[in-house]
Design a protein that fits this description.
mainly beta, Jelly Rolls, seven-stranded mixed sheet, seven-stranded antiparallel sheet, 23 strands, isomerase
Amino acid sequence: MSINYETRYASSPKEVKKLDTKELREEFLIQNLMQNDEINLTYTHFDRYIAGGAVPANKSLKLEAIDPLKASYFLERRELGVINVGGSGTVEVDGEIFTLDYKEALYVGRGNKDIIFKSDDPKKPALFYLNSAPAHKEYPTKKITKENAEIVELGALETSNARTINKLIVQSVVQTCQLQMGMTELKTGSVWNTMPAHVHDRRMEVYFYFEVPKEQSVCHFMGQPDETRHLWLQNNEAVISPPWSIHAGSGTSSYTFIWGMAGENLDYGDMDMAAIKDLK
């Protein structure tokens, strides 16, 4: 079988305070997402969110239901977001073919049965980053490029956080039930991706870091504002962010990250800010 999955259970701030580095990584870090000819998924009990990767290098890959879903097909009660971070490829949705180039996205609504991933060139395979959340209604499948995205410029070089936020799968661009996804690109000379930090108790989040050069890393900060922890991530790795946790990162070089969210509130600006001087 070409689909692998693991399950992560939800945890409280009280538990997380007691974790050492190894335990913290086991709880929140997602590794080995992009493996040739495999779909690798992590199912988290935080809002029943799924994050994963599909790499159809030498063969096409079909997205099938995993056991925790107790469904006859993957999107029976779910919606899906796909962003390509590799070579050009296609996503076939119930017979309709969508071509995704580098950094292009696709929203797939509930009820679509056959999702098939393919690469145009096996030597430069597509790397499809996947996010999925439960859905209560069917919405149309839609491809989103940077030209379609809502783009926001934030931060400044003086504070090392000048960045471009590309809102790809959000309500202002495409209709969804609860899934939201976007991509943040750091300006040259900036390293902080989300600073000042914040929490949003109405939503959980997953960060996927890519374009991290070899031998470089990103330090991801998490935890309650007054009880922070950190994890070191490499290229094409992701981290689960609970609703009660901040989520911010700083790299040793330039990088890009994809954010994905789900929960009861679709308002992107729904944030409880944490003052930098108050972080501990």
